[in-house]
Every structure is written in structure tokens, then in C-alpha cells.
Amino acid sequence: MELQNKLKVSVSGDGLEAYVDLLDPIEESTEADLLSFLEERKVTFGVLHEEIGRIASDDGSVEYPLLIAVGKQPVHGKDGKVIFDKEVNFEIDEHEKASFRDIIAIPSVQEGERIAAIEPPTNGKPGTNVYGEEIAPKPGKPAQLRAGKNTTFKRSDDAFYSSIDGQLSSDERSLQVQPLFEVNGDLDLRTGNLDFVGSIMINGNVPTGFRVFAQGDVTIYGMVEGATITAGGSVHISEGIAGLGKAVIEAGQDIRVGYINQATVEAGQDLFVEYSILHSDCVAHRSVYCQRGHIIGGTISAGVHIEAKDIGNRMNTPTGLYLGVNKKVEEKRSKYNLLLKAKQEDQTKLELIGQKLEEKERTSGELSAKERITKLRQRNSLAAVEKETDELKETLENMNVTIGNLTEARVQVNGKLYGQVHLGFGKYQHQVRSEYRQIYAFLSQGEILLRSIES
């Protein structure tokens, strides 16, 4: 039977589904006729014979277009991955109540010890479209981790090994073992300031005025006073920071500390505080966790999450929480913008003086000795101001105020949120004027909303 004028076959763009549409009523047809019709149109794989039977014995109940053939989806390959033999970097679930003393354990390895192995990617399994043609799967991507400092990679077993005794650390691209510099006791005049290419462990306190710099991690089993601690990796302080308004703690990765009092703290990733943050300026490019303590006074900036037991206090101490923006950098940018405006005004005044002197020189033919000195000073001053203006513009361009993602940003208060707490989500602001219990704050359609955790 001629069906080409009765039926129309259409195939989806990916070739995995074929549909038949009715152009004109079919008086009679057999399943063999319909299969031949599909074969003429190259539809040979995954034909739904039950649907063929429905068309052949159509009693008017068939709805068109009708799915008549279904291909087989390819199974794409799995990406390769790195399987570590021991934990490298610590992460805490936001609801986990872990022991702070356990968190600061250092992952160490011995020379020749296997650190991690590479699991290769898989190729996947091909699929088939309704034309009977093979659909190639997407092969998995190989793991992109390379051997970094003091590590080697052996292709014989696709594994990484340590070349020295030291501390194991990793980032997104490489695996390293950092040599460890250890101080047994407090920092004092005998040790002096520390500057080390690896990691530093101090089994004591760091008094006011000392500086500690490490390209790896800094671990302090004691207290930090008004000192400066800088680490390319993470900073671990088992007790706390009594900063006296002088302490500056900076880490490229995480900071974990017992408490923070009157300090400036910045973590490239997360900030974990066991107890309270008091009158301090803290920045974490991801999250701030202060689950068992208070945040009172100062400013806290985070990329996506701030969590504490209580925020503010009954004395209504002004406290600022900022999501998606680095408040410290924002204040610095405002200062530089004022400086730039002043320099641009100076530049305009100097240009006006120069124009007047040039106009007088054109009309009178020459300038007096005093005017020539003024013109020389004007040129030198203008050149200096232009240079300073360009430097300020470059500095402002390089200032990255935005951190994190506002769509995911959230403040969570497991205890009480007091009045005089200022919430900032990017450019959106909200002043808390009442006391709340167990709430979270988030941004929705340009408005900062407060909701009960239990709702």
C-alpha cells in the first residue's frame, strides 16, 4: 500500500526519536506495510512494534504525531580522578559539630611514601540512533593534577610519591610536600621574625610585634597577640587572637582559630572560629563559620555564607555583615576615589594655569622672568600629577571588590540576631532594628529577607 501520501516521518535533531504524523486517513494497512514504509525512510532501529500495531488496527484512538522509534543513548565516559591515600585539605560541613582540636591536625608524609593515585577516565559506551548509526560517546577527561614541589609521579602505577618528609598539601593543579620549620616554644628575640618557603609550626605563643611569613601553612599551638601572620596556604591557631587592634592574619586558603578579638583577618577560602569574633574586621572569600560563639562589633565580609550562634548583643553594638563584597577593599576603594578626584581637580587647575601662560606668551611675545619660572613649575607639577592620577586609576582597576556569588549568599543565626546589625548583600542594604531568634537572611529580587530556620 502507498503510504507516502498518508504518513509523514520526522526525526529529532539528535536522531534518538522518530515520530509519525497522519496526513490523510489510512483505509487499511498491515504492520509489514508500515515497517517497509519506515525502512524506506531509513528508520530501522528501536522501532516500537506495539505502536506499529496500533496504527495498523487504528480505531480512531491514536493521537498524532506518534512516537514510533527510540534510539539508544550513548553512555558517556567518566572523568578520571585523583584518589588520595590520606586526607589533604580539611573541609567542614556547615552543620558539622567537629572538635576544633581534631581540625588542626597536620597531614604529614614520609620520604618515598605513596600520596595518591590517578584513576584513568573511561571511554563510555556508544549509542545508536533510529537510523541504526552508531553515536559515539564523549570520553572522560583525564585528571588534571601534576606533581608539584617535592613530589614525583610514576607512570608504572599512575601514582604520586613524596620526595621528602614534610607536610602534604594540594591545590586545584598540583600536589606538593612542604618542608616544615618547627619552633619549640614562644617566639622571642632568639628566634626573631620568621620567613620560610615551606610551612611553619610554632609550639607556643606569638607576642606583639613579631612577623611570621610562610609560603605553605602556619600552625600555632598557642595564642597570637598583636602580630602579623601571613601564609600562602592555611593558618591554624589552636587558642586565639588577642590582637590589641594590631594583629593582621592573612591566608591564601583557610584560617582556623579559637577566637578573634580586635584583629584584621583575611582568608582566601574559609574562616573557622571555634568561639567568638569580637570587634574585628574579617574577610573570607568563601564562608565564615562561628557556630558556637558570637560575632560582636567590627565587620565580617564573606563570599557566600556567614554562620554564628549569636550576632550583635543586648548593648546594640554596631556590627556589619557583608555578603558578596569585600568591605575592607570597598572602603579602600572609596578612599582612593577621593584621592583621584582631588588629583583630577589639581590637574585641571594646573592645565588652566598653563593655558593662561601660553595665551599671554602668544599675545605679548614673551614672559617675564617670574612667569617663566611659574611656567616651568607648572609643567613639572602637571607631569607629577598626571603620573599620580594614572597610578591611582591603575590601582582602582586592579581592586577586586566583589567576592562570591550573591545568588547563593546567606547569613544564618542559630541563636539570636540583635538590633544594630547591618546586613549588606552587594549593593543591597538592611538595618536590623529588632531582635530575632534562629533566622537566616538571603537576597531575593533585590530585597534582603529574614526567614525562620524552622520554616
From TrEMBL:
Residues 8-171 form the Flagellar Assembly Protein A N-terminal region domain. InterPro entries: FapA, FapA_b_solenoid, FapA_N. Keywords: Coiled coil. Transmembrane segments: none annotated. Residues 382-409 form a coiled coil. This is DUF342 domain-containing protein. The lineage of its organism: Bacteria, Bacillati, Bacillota, Bacilli, Bacillales.
